[in-house]
Amino acid sequence: MEKFINLQENKQVAIIKAGLVTFGTNGYKKASIADIATAAGIAKSMIFHYFGTKKALYLYLAQYSAELLIGEINAKRNHCGNDFFDRLTFITEIEVDVMKRYPGILAFLKSLFLEKDPEVADEIKGLMAMGEAFRAGITLDGIDAHKFKDGVDPSLVVKMLAWLGEGYVSQVGVSATMDVDDLNHTFNQCLIMLKKNLYKEAYQ
Question: Do 101 and 180 meet the contact criterion of CB atoms below 8 Å apart?
C-alpha cells in the first residue's frame, strides 16, 4: 500500500477512478484486475505491485470512498445550519460534487450495499454501519426539531429517506455516466414534498 501512496497524485486518481467504475459495474467477484489496469492505463502487474491482492484494492476503495465523503462533509459542517431539510439539501450538494469528480463512486457505493461475497462481506458490513451512523449523526445533531409536526420522529425520517434512496437506485440503476444533477433534482423534489407534510405550517 505504501508504494501506491507514494505514487504521483494523478496516477493514484486514475487507478481509484478505474477501480470504482469496474467494481461498481461488476461487483467484487466479477470485477477484473485486468480491466481496472487497462482503464487506468497501467500494466496489470502494477495493481498487484501496489496492493498485493484484489481484496486489498477493493477494501482500500471502500475506505477511500467513505473517508472522502465524510471528510468533505466535515470540512463544511459548520455551514449546514440547523434546519433538517436545509441540512439534507446542503449535504446532498456536497455528495453530488464528489460524484462529479469521481463518476464511478455512486455505482461503487451501491455495489457495497449489495455485496454478498464472503471474502469481503464482513469488512463491508462494518464500514457501511460506520457510514450510516455518521450520516444519521450529521443529519440529526443540533437540528431544530420543534419545526416538525407533533408525533414526527426525525430519526425515522432519516431511515425513510435512506430506504427511498436505496429503492430509487435499485429501480433506475446507477452508472458512471448517469446525470447526478437530475438525480439530485428528483431527491430535492422529494424533500420539498416531505417538508410540506412533516413540518408545522409556519415552517413549511
Answer: no
Domain boundaries, the chain: 2-203
Predicted TM-score (pTM) of the model is 0.88
Closest CA to 46 of 82, 14, 84, 81: 14
CA gap 13, 50 in Å, rounded = 13
If you search the block for the grid coordinates 449535504, which residue do you land on?
91
Residue showing cell 449546514: 80
Q: What is the pLDDT of residue 183?
A: 81
Distance CA 69, CA 46 (A): 27
Question: Are 73 and 91 spatial neighbours (Cβ–Cβ below 8 Å)?
Answer: yes
pLDDT in tens, 64-100: 999 999 999 999 888 888 999 999 999 999 999 999 8
pLDDT in tens, 143-164: 999 999 999 999 999 988 888 7
- Given a contact cutoff of 8 angstroms between Cβ atoms, the answer to whether 111 and 24 are in contact is yes
Residue 139 and residue 158: Cα distance in Å, rounded?
A: 8
CATH top-level class of 2-203: mainly alpha
Q: Which three cell numbers stand for residue 77?
A: 459542517
d(CA 189, CA 127): 30
